[in-house]
């Protein structure tokens, strides 16, 4: 081997450029070497170039294999899909030696394709490009599922040019573009691109290399989707397990409360014992509320429903029996109540109603005794007061204190089954009245299609106050309008048993008056009904009627020495004419006007109304008669 031929080995060893392989031939020709020598050098040059090309190809394939290995390694430890796809695009750009590489994915929901990853791009418009399916070079790749390459994009007519695509490609300055499909089975899910800003021919090896990267990208996307589905399934499974655990805990609590409620019933527990037991199980505060409590009355609970309803942050369930509202259980501090806990609260309401019914049954005997005593007071006034007092004492009733007789009625229903309904209403009314009498240390009995109560008169209360309270209580309990009429107070029923029957007649007349006046559902005494009450009252309390009607004016005259009562009498006698009134009184008309204004302030603005005027005239006549009698 000559020195000149050995120089090619040296060039191969240091990886010299292709141009350097011409230097040995040029030097030999310059030194006057013969044709045989020059031919040997040219043969050695060609052989060296082939060896160089082979070595260069091996190095390139080694780099490609290394890049593919690194990509596969990234996929094996896939954590971030975006990072893996970005690495694939970066390596494709580096190995193919292009200025730009990018990857687009199809969006089935939107019906188009969008840029997912770009490398080397400088145009914001290009990076945000969204293309319709089938448009541009990428659309051709997606349609045929085969790689496509163009040396000059804008001169290639094989694919559909659109303004949006051409604007983005022109903005980026791309000329030569290679695109290969991303395949999942037979489905194209996107395209991997390599592009230059100058005309260029992509070799088959480069097309194959980009296809290998596209296969890795498709695997990465599929793996990421599977991982996402797995994570979603695991999350759903965890939620299902949490629901099962929660339901198991709720069922255990429900079983616990069932056992505790059963034990309470068997051992004669009370309503508040039930509330305490449910409070512990439901981790809240449960309280029993009477049916006439303002908050419960406002809800207008249906006594036949039995389902818990939400009221603000509380849960309320009716405690009822036979359509009668006995009260309600109220759960505080537990706004989010699951169906099982709600059922537990409803079951507790059922147990509460059973306990209340049991307590009511135990008290029925006592109620019958109370009714029998009241019947004796009404029907047999000649009984020994000492025996009546002893019977009342056993019932914790003090018949030596002032009492009021109250008559209660429920209006009849116009339904087809009105007879049956009326009978049921009378029974419910009698039961509610007996319960009220027991709590107020009074007496009650069913009578004349309604109920009669003998209740003690509290300090500061009037018969009218007691009638209104009783109407509200019974109406709230029965969820029906109950009309209540009251008698005048009976000071000592046991000492004057004969007064009870007369007081009951007065109370009944008051009830009938309320119904005639279309005031059903209200409570009132004779004193509330003006002169009508005077006619109804068995005692004919004339002085009381005059005092209630004319008292403010008479009191003013007595304090000030004025003559307003006489002026009012003259005013009515003169046909309510101020001019004729001043002639009757022999005063100036302005004086009459001033006196009438004063009377209006004392009696109220409605004293001219026909009803008030009639009552005032009647009171004036009675006042004059009583003055003559005295």
UniProtKB/TrEMBL annotation:
SMART domains per the UniProt record, alphabetical: GAF
Every GAF domain range: 80-231
Signal peptide boundaries: none
Pfam families for the chain: GAF, GGDEF_2, HTH_30
Bilayer-crossing regions: none
SUPFAM superfamilies listed in its UniProt record: GAF domain-like
Similarity section: Belongs to the CdaR family.
Classification via PANTHER family: CARBOHYDRATE DIACID REGULATOR, DNA-BINDING TRANSCRIPTIONAL ACTIVATOR ADER
The protein's name: GAF domain-containing protein
């Amino acid at each position: 081997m000559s020195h000149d031929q050995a120089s090619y080995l040296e060039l191969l060893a240091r990886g010299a450029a292709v141009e350097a392989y011409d230097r040995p031939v040029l030097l030999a020709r310059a030194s006057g070497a013969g044709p045989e020598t020059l031919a040997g050098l040219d043969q050695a040059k060609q052989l060296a170039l082939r060896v160089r090309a082979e070595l260069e190809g091996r190095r390139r394939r080694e780099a490609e294999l290394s890049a593919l290995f690194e990509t596969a390694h990234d996929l094996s430890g896939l954590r971030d899909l975006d990072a893996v796809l970005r690495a694939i695009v970066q390596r494709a750009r580096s190995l193919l030696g292009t200025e730009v590489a990018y990857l687009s994915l199809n969006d089935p929901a939107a019906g188009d394709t969008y840029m997912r990853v770009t490398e080397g791009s400088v145009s914001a418009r290009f990076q945000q490009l969204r293309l319709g399916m089938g448009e541009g070079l990428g659309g051709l790749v997606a349609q045929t599922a085969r790689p496509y390459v163009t040396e000059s994009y804008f001169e290639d007519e094989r694919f559909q040019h659109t303004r949006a695509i051409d604007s983005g490609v022109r903005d980026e300055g791309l000329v030569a573009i290679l695109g290969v499909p991303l395949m999942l089975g037979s489905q194209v899910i996107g395209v991997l691109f390599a592009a230059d800003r100058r005309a260029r021919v992509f070799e088959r090896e480069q097309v194959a290399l980009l296809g290998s990267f596209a296969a890795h990208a498709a695997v990465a996307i599929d793996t990421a989707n599977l991982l996402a589905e797995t994570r979603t399934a695991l999350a759903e499974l965890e939620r299902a397990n949490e629901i099962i655990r929660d339901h198991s805990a709720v069922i255990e609590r429900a079983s616990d409360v069932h056992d505790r409620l059963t034990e309470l019933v068997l051992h004669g527990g009370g309503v508040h014992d039930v509330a305490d037991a449910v409070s512990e199980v439901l981790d809240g505060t449960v309280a029993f509320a009477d049916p006439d409590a303002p908050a419960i009355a406002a809800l207008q609970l249906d006594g036949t429903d039995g389902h818990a309803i939400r009221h603000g942050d509380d849960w309320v369930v009716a405690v009822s029996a036979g359509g009668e509202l006995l009260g309600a259980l109220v759960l505080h501090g537990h706004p989010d109540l699951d169906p099982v806990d709600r059922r537990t609260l409803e079951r507790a309401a059922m147990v509460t109603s059973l306990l209340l019914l049991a307590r009511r049954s135990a008290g029925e005997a006592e109620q019958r005794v109370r009714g029998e005593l009241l019947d004796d007071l009404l029907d047999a006034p000649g009984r020994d007061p000492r025996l009546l007092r002893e019977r009342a004492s056993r019932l914790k009733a003090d018949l030596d204190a002032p009492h009021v007789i109250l008559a209660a009625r429920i209006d009849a229903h116009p339904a087809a089954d009105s007879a049956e309904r009326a009978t049921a209403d009378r029974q419910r009314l009698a039961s509610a009245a007996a319960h009220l009498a027991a709590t107020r240390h009074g007496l009650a009995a069913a009578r004349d299609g309604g109920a009669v109560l003998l209740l003690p008169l509290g300090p500061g209360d009037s018969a009218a106050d007691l009638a209104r309270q009783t109407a509200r209580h019974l109406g709230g309990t029965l969820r029906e309008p109950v009309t209540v009429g009251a008698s005048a107070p009976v000071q000592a029923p046991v000492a004057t048993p004969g007064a009870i029957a007369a007081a009951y007649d007065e109370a009944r007349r008051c009830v009938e008056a309320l119904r005639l006046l279309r005031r059903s559902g209200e409570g009132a005494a004779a004193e509330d009904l003006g002169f009508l009450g005077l006619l109804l009252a068995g005692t004919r309390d004339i002085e009381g009627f005059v005092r209630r009607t004319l008292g403010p004016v008479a009191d003013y005259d007595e304090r000030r020495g004025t003559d307003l009562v006489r002026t009012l009498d003259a005013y009515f006698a003169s046909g309510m004419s101020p001019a004729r009134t001043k002639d009757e009184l022999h005063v100036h008309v302005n004086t009459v006007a001033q006196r009438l204004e004063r009377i209006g302030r004392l009696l109220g603005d409605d004293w001219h109304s026909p009803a008030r005027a009639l009552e005032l005239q009647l009171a004036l006549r009675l006042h004059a008669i009583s003055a003559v009698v005295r």
